[in-house]
Structures are given as structure tokens and as C-alpha cells.
User: Fold this.
Amino acid sequence: MMADTTTPDGFLVGEDGSWVMEKQVMGGYVRTPYDNRSYYFDPEWQVFVFDETTDYAWVTDTLVLSAVRGITPASELSEKNRAVYEEVCKFLTGFDYGASDYEKAKRIYEEITSRAVYQEGKYVQADDEVHSILVAGTGKCVGFARTYKLLANAVGLKCGFREDGAHMWNAVYVDGEDMVIDASTIGTSADFYLGRQKAVCPHCGHKNTFGNRETGRPCVNCGIQIQNPRYS
Assistant:
């Protein structure tokens, strides 16, 4: 019996196996359990904002997410965004929405790395777009990070960006904690990024969680810099 997923014809199946028959506001190809989450439209930047802490004015991919959630018709998307929308819908078809945050984050990483490779050649603007990753199958770090965020948001995960001026990757929230993950790297796995280490802050005693990639970070309780025991 199907449960907590989307059928090939776009219907949402609840966790008890029942069909969710309510239609989206504007109609759409696919239904998800997250269609009715709150949002607002920013008229200055012409983007939808679903999470004020992780959505950014320069990232227009929320236009695709608005179509996935039935807020706007897919027919109003640009040609490139319509192609991205179709790929996202294919990804959501049969997706297990009842999976843990960890399994969702891992599934997204594996989806992206199985269909796109890092573009080693000369930079072009298209390398930074989700279309380049999901449709063309190649791109640079910004494109990989935007794609990871879009798919993560589509399956209900909070996800943001991290950058150091020369590179961009993601921070995906797994069970309420942000875990760094980089789908553009070669020769790594989702488990490498999402595996966790615990460290007790020597100043306040708070238990902090590190991703395997993190060497250190400020304690979330007191702000004192502490090290990941994996690298000590």
C-alpha cells in the first residue's frame, strides 16, 4: 500500500494510505504535504518567501516552489523554470514524505550527484542555475547549492546557504539542527556530511552537534568556539 507519497498522476497519499483529494489553489501536477505552509510575496524582489531565515531575495527558485505548491500556475513560469518544475515533479513522484529528515537529506544529495557533474571549464552564468544541474547535468557550486535547497524545501526540509566568498554549499536542517552538506564535491557521500559528532561545551556544558565536515563552530548556547572531536 502506498503511503506518505505522491502518485504518478499527481495525487497525495496520506500516511494512513488514504488519498488526499483537496486540490491546490491553482492546480498543479503534484501534491505534497507542505502545500499549505505559510508564505508571502515580496513585490520589490518579485519572489516568494517561505522561510525568512533561509530564503534570499537574489534566489528566484521560490517561483518554482510556488508552482509545485499550487500557489501560481506552472504556465506562468519562464521556459527554464518550467523545465525545472517538471524535473522537481518527477523527483517528488513516489517520494517517501514519511522518511526521517536524515533520509530525506541523503536522498536529495544522491539524486543531485547521480545526475550532475561539476563543470570544470570556464564559468558561464548558466552554471549557477538549477536548470543547469537538473536539465543540463552540469554546473558549478552555486548551481548545486541552489538545486539542493530547492529539492530540500520541496520535501519539507529547511535549508540555507553557506559561503566563503569563493565557494557555496548548504546547511540543511536535520531534526532541528543545521548540517553542512556540499553536493558539488567529488568522491564524498551524504553520510560523510550528515554523520554527527557530539561535543560538550567546556564553558556551559551544552551538548553541541557537528557534521563530519565541520572542524569547529561556536557553541549554540554560549557562543564560545569549540572543536569537533573528530578533528581533535
Observations:
- The first helix runs from residue 62 to 68.
